[in-house]
Specification:
Layout (H helix, E strand, L loop, with lengths): L1 H21 L15 E4 L2 H9 L6 E4 L2 E4 L2 E3 L11 E4 L4 E4 L7 E5 L4 E4 L2 E3 L3 E6 L5 E3 L2 E3 L6 E4 L6 E3 L2 E3 L12 E3 L6 H4 L11 E3 L2 E2 L8 E3 L7 E3 L2 E3 L13 E3 L5 E3 L2 E3 L10 E3 L11 E3 L2 E6 L2 E5 L2 E2 L2 E2 L4 E2 L4 E5 L2 E3 L7
Parallel strand pairs: 1-2, 2-5, 3-6, 4-7, 5-8, 6-9, 7-10, 8-11, 9-12, 10-13, 11-14, 12-15, 13-16, 14-17, 15-18, 16-19, 17-20, 18-21, 19-22, 20-23, 21-24, 22-25, 23-26, 24-27, 25-28, 26-31, 27-32, 28-33
Antiparallel strand pairs: 29-30
Length: 342
C-alpha cells in the first residue's frame, strides 16, 4: 500500500513538472526585438505616417524635397537604448510649417530617437522636445522661426544636441528668440510641470554653430535644470536684440553646468554686453557652474564672464571661472569674480 502511494505521488509529480515545463516562458532568444525596418519617404503624408507608426529599430529616410506642414513624433513611438529610431535626411529635406506665428515645425515627445541632417523652418518654434529623453539631435539646420530654434522642455533629459546650425530666430517675438532653450522659467512651471522645477537635466550641446540673427541668447539655461555640458560651440552675437535682457551669448540660471572650449564672436552688435552671464532667478539656482578654456571676443562694455553674486531672488555660490579662458574687447575685463587657476 505504501509503495503504491509513493508511486502515485511520483507519477503526479512527473505530470505536474511536465505541465509546468510545457507552459514555461520561452528562452530569452525567443524574446528578441525584431530588426527595424527601412522606411523611405518622399511626401509629407508618408512622413507623418512613418512618424506615427514607428517602432524600435526603424530607419526613416527622407528624400530631398519640401515637406509642408507641422510634424509630430508621439510618445507611443519611443525606441529603446539598443534599438533607437533614426529619422534622417540631407539639408535639402526641408520640413516647412509655413507660418512663423503658430505651432512647431517638429514636435518630439518620445525617447531614443536619432534626428539627423535635415532642415526645419517657418514655424513659431523649430524643434520642441516635451518629455523627450535620451535622444540625439545631430546636424539639423533650423532657421527662420518666430521664436526659439530648439527647446527642451517638460523634463527632457539626457539628450545630445550636436553639429546643429541655428539662424534667424525670433522673427515674431525677438525676446523669445533663443537659439537653444533648456528647461522652463519658473513662471511656466504651473502650466507645464505641475509647479515642479522643470528638471531638464544632463543635456549636452556640442559642436553647434548658433547665429547669426538669433535675437535672444544663443543658449538660455533655465532655473530648475542641472548638470548639462556646453562645449566646442561657436556663438555669433550678430542680431542679439537686447530685448528681455538678452545681451550675452549664454545666460545660465541652472546648476552644475560645464561650459568649455566654446568660441564667441561679437563683431557688429552694440547692445551686446557680456560674453557669459549667470543669474539667480530663484534662490538655490545659478550655482556651481564651471567655465573653462573658452575664447571670447566680446567687444562690449561688460565682462567676459559676469556672475551675479546677489539679487532680489537670492545669492549665487560655487561658480568658477578658470584662468585659461581668453577674453578680448571686454571693457570691464575677463570676469567680475576671481579667476581660478587651472
Amino acid at each position: 500500500m505504501i509503495k503504491h502511494f509513493l508511486y502515485s505521488c511520483f507519477v503526479l509529480c512527473l505530470f505536474s513538472c511536465a505541465a509546468q515545463h510545457t507552459y514555461a516562458t520561452p528562452p530569452a532568444s525567443g524574446n528578441e526585438v525584431p530588426a527595424g525596418r527601412i522606411v523611405k519617404v518622399s511626401t509629407a503624408a508618408q512622413l507623418k505616417k512613418a512618424l506615427s507608426t514607428a517602432r524600435p529599430g526603424d530607419d526613416i529616410q527622407m528624400e530631398d524635397g519640401n515637406y509642408s506642414g507641422k510634424f509630430k513624433i508621439p510618445p507611443y513611438t519611443s525606441g529603446t537604448s539598443k534599438n533607437p529610431i533614426m529619422l534622417s535626411g540631407s539639408e535639402k529635406a526641408i520640413l516647412d510649417a509655413g507660418d512663423i506665428t503658430t505651432g512647431y515645425v517638429l514636435s518630439l515627445e518620445s525617447d531614443y530617437w536619432h534626428l539627423k541632417g535635415f532642415t526645419l523652418t517657418n514655424g513659431l518654434k523649430g524643434l520642441m522636445a516635451d518629455s523627450a529623453s535620451n535622444n540625439i539631435i545631430d546636424g539639423i539646420y533650423v532657421h527662420d522661426v518666430g521664436e526659439e530654434g530648439i527647446h527642451l522642455r517638460k523634463f527632457s533629459s539626457n539628450n545630445i544636441i550636436r553639429n546643429v546650425r541655428v539662424e534667424n530666430t525670433g522673427l515674431k517675438t525677438p525676446d523669445y528668440g533663443e537659439g537653444i532653450y533648456i528647461g522652463s522659467a519658473k513662471s511656466n512651471w504651473k502650466k507645464y510641470t505641475n509647479n515642479m522645477p522643470d528638471k531638464c537635466d544632463n543635456n549636452i550641446v556640442e559642436n553647434c554653430h548658433l547665429g547669426p540673427n538669433i535675437t535672444a541668447e544663443c543658449i538660455d539655461i533655465k532655473e530648475g535644470t542641472t548638470g548639462g555640458i556646453i562645449r566646442n560651440n561657436v556663438f555669433d552675437a550678430k542680431g542679439i536684440s537686447g530685448e528681455n535682457a538678452a545681451d550675452s551669448w549664454i545666460d545660465v540660471k541652472g546648476n552644475k553646468y560645464l561650459i568649455e572650449n566654446n568660441t564667441g564672436e561679437n563683431t557688429a552688435n552694440d547692445v551686446f554686453k557680456d560674453g557669459y552671464q549667470v543669474h539667480v532667478a530663484i534662490d538655490g539656482w545659478g550655482n556651481d557652474n564651471v567655465f573653462k578654456n573658452n575664447v571670447s571676443n566680446v567687444n562690449g562694455p561688460g565682462y567676459g564672464f559676469n556672475i551675479q553674486l546677489k539679487g532680489s531672488n537670492g545669492t549665487t555660490k560655487g561658480n568658477i571661472v578658470y584662468n585659461n579662458n581668453k577674453v578680448t574687447g571686454a571693457e570691464k575685463g575677463i570676469s567680475n569674480i576671481e579667476l581660478t587657476k587651472e
